[in-house]
């Protein structure tokens, strides 16, 4: 189970969250980790920085929109997680949060994240991200940098849906090429951050195809370079997203 949480909207600017939640560090964990959303099947190499390994926390969180105008929207999240060894709800004792600003006129978002591990050897993690989705074209550019106690790195990903060619439902309009470049740098030995043991560079090339009825075919090729050995990674998967109502509704 990735998360199981209850949200209480206390005010228009504050939502109180309790339960088992996705750690709000960076952007990949909360926004792109579900398999029906992510373009590539593998998470970025720096995924372990700030997410405490499991990517989830057990405790409470405050989040919401602090300020919003026609030119900028500022949002925030702050959390505390208790340590849990339960098989379904594994988490580390930690705290942290993030703040980010979105500029709707240029469709640009920039933010920063902070996380601190409170068990074992206490350590800090920092991160920044930048997303840009230009208006008028189906292009997305996402990037993230993270620095932990023993490693650091970045990833940059871009995808372009060919929907402008004969429409989104045409044969070629269902295609979406993806490219991601990422690097990690090992500052000192550590196995708890789940990053490569040596400096690593990886290039991912993907091609997704959107079929009717929420079915998508993901294919990708990756080339990874490291002093521990160079490898090729080929992956293919089929994703089907199904939706069902939690409660019977009625027309008004």
Instruction: Characterize the main sheet.
Output: 13 strands, antiparallel
Order of strands in the sheet with most strands: 1-2-3-4-7-8-9-10-11-12-13-14-15
**SSE order, one letter for each helix or strand:** EEHEEEEEEEEEEEEE
Structural class given helices, strands, pairing? mainly beta
| CA-CA gap between termini | 35 Å
Our estimate of the beta-strand percent is over 45%
- Number of helical segments with 4 or more residues: 1
Tell me the Rg in angstroms.
19 Å
Estimate the helix proportion, in percent. Answer: under 10%
Number of E-type strands = 15
Report the principal-axis shape. globular
Unreliable parts: none
Mean pLDDT: 93
Summarize the structure.
The chain has 252 residues and is an all-beta fold. It has one helix spanning 28-32; strands at 4-11, 14-22, 56-68, 73-82, 84-85, 90-91, 94-103, 108-117, 123-132, 139-147, 151-160, 175-186, 200-211, 215-226, 231-240. It has a domain at 4-172.
Characterization of this structure:
This protein is an all-beta fold. The protein has a domain at 4-172. 2% of the residues lie in helices and 55% in strands. The chain has one helix at residues 28-32; strands at residues 4-11, 14-22, 56-68, 73-82, 84-85, 90-91, 94-103, 108-117, 123-132, 139-147, 151-160, 175-186, 200-211, 215-226, 231-240. The chain starts with a strand and ends in a 12-residue tail after the last strand.
Could you list some keywords that capture this structure?
1 helix; single chain; 252 residues; 13-stranded antiparallel sheet; mainly beta; two-stranded antiparallel sheet
């Amino acid at each position: 189970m990735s998360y199981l949480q209850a949200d209480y909207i206390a005010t228009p600017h504050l939502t109180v969250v309790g339960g088992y939640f996705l750690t709000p560090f960076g952007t990949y964990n909360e926004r792109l980790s579900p398999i029906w959303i992510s373009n590539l099947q593998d998470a970025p190499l720096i995924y372990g920085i700030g997410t405490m390994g499991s990517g989830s926390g057990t405790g409470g969180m405050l989040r919401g929109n602090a300020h919003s105008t026609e030119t900028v929207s500022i949002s925030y999240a702050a959390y505390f997680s208790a340590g849990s060894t339960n098989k379904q709800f594994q988490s580390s004792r930690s705290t942290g949060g993030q703040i980010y600003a979105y500029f709707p006129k240029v469709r640009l978002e920039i933010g920063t994240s902070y996380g601190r591990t409170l068990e074992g050897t206490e350590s800090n993690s920092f991160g920044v991200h930048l997303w840009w989705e230009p208006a008028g074209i189906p292009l997305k550019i996402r990037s993230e940098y993270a620095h932990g106690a023993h490693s650091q790195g970045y990833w940059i990903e871009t995808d372009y849906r060919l929907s402008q060619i004969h429409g989104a439902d045409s044969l070629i309009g269902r295609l979406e090429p993806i490219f991601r470049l990422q690097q990690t740098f090992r500052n000192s030995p550590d196995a708890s951050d789940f990053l490569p043991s040596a400096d690593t560079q990886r290039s991912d090339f993907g091609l997704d195809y959107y079929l009717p009825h929420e079915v998508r075919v993901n294919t990708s090729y990756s080339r990874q370079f490291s002093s521990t050995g160079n490898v090729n990674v080929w992956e293919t998967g089929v994703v089907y997203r199904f939706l069902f109502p939690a409660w019977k509704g009625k027309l008004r």
